[in-house]
C-alpha cells in the first residue's frame, strides 16, 4: 500500500481504541496490531519513515488493504489482538521459537494406576502433569516418589475378579520392596489410591498435605506399636523434608506466584518464567521470541505471559514483573516489587535471562571462531574488494593465441576458495580474426554468461579477468549487454604489479602481497592461464597432425586416426616401409602416404 493510497482512507479512520489488520492481495492477514487511537497508530506507518524498521517497511509494501475493529477499551483491544494472532498466525507478528518436546508424568486411568514418563499427551482420561524441562529435575522427583510410595510398574489387568481368582504371581519388584503386591491382594485399592493422591500433591508442589500424610502414617503405626514400620515412615519423612529443602523454598510467606522477566539480543527477545507453588520453585523456563516488527517489551512480555500460563496451567492470581502492564486476565494482580523476598525472586529471574543470553553470545562467538580457512579467506576477499556478498563462487578468464593463430580462451571456476575442475570450460574463439585479445574477451565472456542465463544457472559473485583495463573493459561490454553487470563484481588483475582494476575506475587498488585474498586471486589467475595454455597447445598439436596427414590425397580421418593410434607420432609413420603401410591400409592409400613422406626426404636432401 502506497502513502497516496493510504491518504485516501485516512480521513475516515476512527480515533477510538481498536485492532487493525494489514492484508495482502489474497486477503491473507500479514499483521495484527492494537491501538488506543486507531487513526494515530495507522498514520505512523505512512508518515516519516526515516527511523522505521526495515521489516515494518517491507510489511507495509506488501500490504494491499487495511481492516480494523473498534472496541470499547484498550484492554478489549488487547484481548482481541491476542485472539486474532492465535487464530491466524500472521507472518509479521511475533513468532514463538519453542520446538522442544518436554517430558510429562502420566498417572494412568486404570485400577491401581501406574505412574510413568511420557512425551505424548493423549486424551485417554489419564492425568498428565508437567511439562518438565529439566531431565535431572524430573528424575529427582521420580526417585523421591519411588522411595516414598512404592507402586506397581507392571501392565497387568488388576480387576477384582482376576485378583480373586489368583491369576497373578508376584514379581521381582515385590521381593525388593518396590511394590506392595496389589496383584495378589496384599494392598487394598483404597490404600493404593491414597498414595497416588499424595504423589499428585508432590507433583503439583503441594508439600504440606504430603508431610501430614506421612506423619499420620507414622503415628498410626506407633499407636499400634509397629515400631519398625513407624521408623520406616520417619525415614521417609526425613527423605521428603530433605527433598523439599533442595527444591528451592523461597519463602514461608510467599505461596503461589508467577515471575516473568525479559531481555533482548539482536532481533530476539528472551522471556524467563519462574512458577512458585507453596513457596517452592516448581518450574523455570526461558523462551525466545523472534521480533518481526517494532514490538516493544510490553507487547512481547504480555504475549509470553499468556503462552506460559496456558502451557503450565497456572491459575495463580499474582504475577511479579519489573514494570506494571495490563494483562489479558483481568483478575490477575501485577506486583512490581522494590525490595524484599519478591524483589529477590525478580532478580533471580533476571539473572536467568542474562545467563541465557550470555550463553547464546558464547555459542555465536564459538561458531565464528570455528570458521574454516576458506570462510576466513573469502570474507577477507569480500572486505578487500568491498563486495556486498561473500564470493563463494568465483570465475576467472584468460585467452591464448600464437601470433593470432588458434585463438582460445579458458574459464576456471573456484567454489568455496577451491578449484572446481568439473566446472572448468575452454572456448574456441569464433568471431575474431587476428591477434585481438580485447575482442576475444568480449566474445568469450558474452558466450559464457548468455548460456548460464539461458540454462538458469546461478551467476558467480566475483569474475576475474586476467589482464588490465583493456581486457576488463572488453568483458564489461558483454556483461552490460546481458544486463547482469549490477549482479556481479568484476575485476581485472594486471600481472606486472598485481594491480586490481574495477570497471570505469582508472585508479587501481593494491592488496597486501601477503594477504590470503590476493593469493586466492593469483591462484585463480594462474590456473586460468595454465588451463588456457594447455588447451592452446593441444589444439596446435591436433591441427598440425591433421594438416600433415590430410594434405595427402585419399587419406581420411579413419585412416589418420588408425595410424596415429598405433604409432603415436608422425615421425614414426614417416619411417614405415611401403609393405608396412600396405599391411594397415589398401595399396593405393599406402602408396600415397609412402610417396608423400619420401618426397619430403628427397627435398630435404
TrEMBL record:
Entries under Pfam families matching the protein: GIY-YIG, HHH_2, UvrC_RNaseH, UvrC_RNaseH_dom
GO CC term (a single one): excinuclease repair complex
Keywords noted in UniProt: Cytoplasm, DNA damage, DNA excision, DNA repair, Excision nuclease, SOS response
Domain UvrC family homology region profile: 268-475
Domain GIY-YIG intervals: 15-94
InterPro entries reported in the protein's UniProt record: DisA/LigA_HHH, GIY-YIG_endonuc, GIY-YIG_endonuc_sf, GIY-YIG_UvrC_Cho, RuvA_2-like, UVR_dom_sf, UvrABC_protein_C, UvrC
Subcellular localization(s) per the UniProt record: Cytoplasm
UniProt similarity note: Belongs to the UvrC family.
Name of the protein in question: UvrABC system protein C
Organism: Portibacter lacus
Taxonomic placement: Bacteria, Pseudomonadati, Bacteroidota, Saprospiria, Saprospirales
Amino acid at each position: 500500500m502506497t502513502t497516496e493510497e493510504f491518504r485516501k482512507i485516512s480521513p475516515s479512520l476512527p480515533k477510538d481504541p481498536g485492532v487493525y489488520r494489514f492484508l495482502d492481495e489474497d486477503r491473507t492477514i500479514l499483521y495484527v496490531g492494537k491501538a488506543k487511537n486507531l487513526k494515530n497508530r495507522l498514520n505512523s506507518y505512512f508518515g516519516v519513515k526515516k527511523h522505521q524498521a526495515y521489516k515494518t517497511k517491507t510489511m507495509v509494501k506488501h500490504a494491499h488493504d487495511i481492516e480494523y475493529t473498534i472496541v470499547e477499551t484498550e484492554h478489549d483491544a488487547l484481548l482481541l489482538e491476542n485472539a486474532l494472532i492465535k487464530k491466524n498466525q500472521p507472518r509479521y507478528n511475533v513468532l514463538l521459537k519453542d520446538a522442544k518436546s518436554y517430558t510429562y508424568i502420566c498417572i494412568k486411568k486404570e485400577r491401581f494406576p501406574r505412574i510413568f514418563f511420557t512425551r505424548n499427551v493423549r486424551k485417554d482420561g489419564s492425568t498428565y502433569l508437567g511439562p518438565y524441562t529439566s531431565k535431572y529435575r524430573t528424575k529427582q522427583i521420580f526417585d523421591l516418589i519411588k522411595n516414598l510410595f512404592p507402586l506397581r510398574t507392571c501392565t497387568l489387568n488388576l480387576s477384582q475378579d482376576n485378583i480373586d481368582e489368583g491369576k497373578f504371581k508376584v514379581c521381582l519388584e515385590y521381593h525388593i520392596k518396590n511394590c506392595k503386591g496389589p496383584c495378589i491382594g496384599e494392598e487394598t485399592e483404597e490404600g493404593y489410591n491414597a498414595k497416588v493422591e499424595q504423589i499428585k500433591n508432590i507433583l503439583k508442589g503441594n508439600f504440606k498435605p504430603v508431610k501430614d500424610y506421612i506423619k499420620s502414617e507414622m503415628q498410626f503405626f506407633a499407636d499400634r506399636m509397629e515400631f519398625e514400620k513407624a521408623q520406616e515412615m520417619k525415614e521417609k519423612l526425613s527423605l521428603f523434608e530433605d527433598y523439599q529443602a533442595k527444591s528451592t523454598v523461597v519463602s514461608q510467606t510467599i505461596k503461589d506466584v508467577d515471575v516473568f522477566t525479559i531481555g533482548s539480543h539482536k532481533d530476539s527477545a528472551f522471556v524467563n518464567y519462574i512458577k512458585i507453588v507453596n513457596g517452592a520453585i516448581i518450574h523455570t523456563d526461558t523462551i525466545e521470541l523472534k521480533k518481526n516488527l517494532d514490538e516493544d517489551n510490553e507487547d512481547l512480555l504480555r504475549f509470553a505471559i499468556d503462552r506460559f500460563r496456558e502451557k503450565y496451567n497456572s491459575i495463580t492470581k499474582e504475577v511479579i514483573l519489573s514494570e506494571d502492564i495490563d494483562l489479558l486476565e483481568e483478575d490477575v494482580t501485577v506486583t512490581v516489587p522494590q525490595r524484599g523476598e519478591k524483589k529477590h525472586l525478580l532478580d533471580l529471574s533476571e539473572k536467568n535471562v542474562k545467563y541465557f543470553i550470555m550463553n547464546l553470545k558464547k555459542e555465536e562467538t564459538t561458531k565464528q571462531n570455528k570458521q574454516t580457512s576458506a570462510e576466513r579467506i573469502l570474507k577477507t576477499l569480500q572486505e578487500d574488494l568491498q563486495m556486498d556478498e561473500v564470493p563463494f563462487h568465483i570465475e576467472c578468464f584468460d585467452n591464448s593465441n600464437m601470433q593470432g593463430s588458434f585463438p582460445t580462451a579458458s574459464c576456471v571456476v573456484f567454489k568455496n576458495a577451491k578449484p572446481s575442475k568439473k566446472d572448468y570450460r575452454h572456448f574456441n574463439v569464433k568471431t575474431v580474426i587476428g591477434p585481438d585479445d580485447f575482442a576475444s574477451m568480449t566474445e568469450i565472456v558474452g558466450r559464457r554468461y548468455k548460456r548460464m542465463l539461458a540454462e538458469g544457472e546461478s551467476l558467480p559473485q566475483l569474475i576475474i579477468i586476467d589482464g588490465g583495463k583493456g581486457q576488463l573493459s572488453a568483458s564489461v561490454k558483454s556483461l552490460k549487454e546481458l544486463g547482469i553487470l549490477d549482479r556481479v563484481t568484476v575485476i581485472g588483475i594486471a600481472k606486472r604489479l598485481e594491480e586490481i582494476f574495477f570497471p570505469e575506475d582508472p585508479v587501481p587498488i593494491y592488496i597486501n602481497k601477503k594477504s590470503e585474498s590476493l593469493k586466492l586471486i593469483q591462484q585463480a589467475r594462474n590456473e586460468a592461464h595454465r588451463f588456457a595454455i594447455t588447451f592452446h597447445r593441444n589444439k596446435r598439436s591436433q591441427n598440425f597432425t591433421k594438416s600433415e596427414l590430410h594434405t595427402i590425397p585419399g587419406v581420411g580421418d579413419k585412416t589418420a586416426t588408425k595410424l596415429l593410434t598405433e604409432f603415436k607420432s608422425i615421425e614414426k609413420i614417416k619411417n614405415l616401409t611401403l609393405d608396412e603401410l600396405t599391411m594397415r591400409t589398401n595399396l593405393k592409400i599406402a602408396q600415397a602416404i609412402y610417396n608423400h613422406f619420401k618426397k619430403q626426404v628427397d627435398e630435404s636432401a
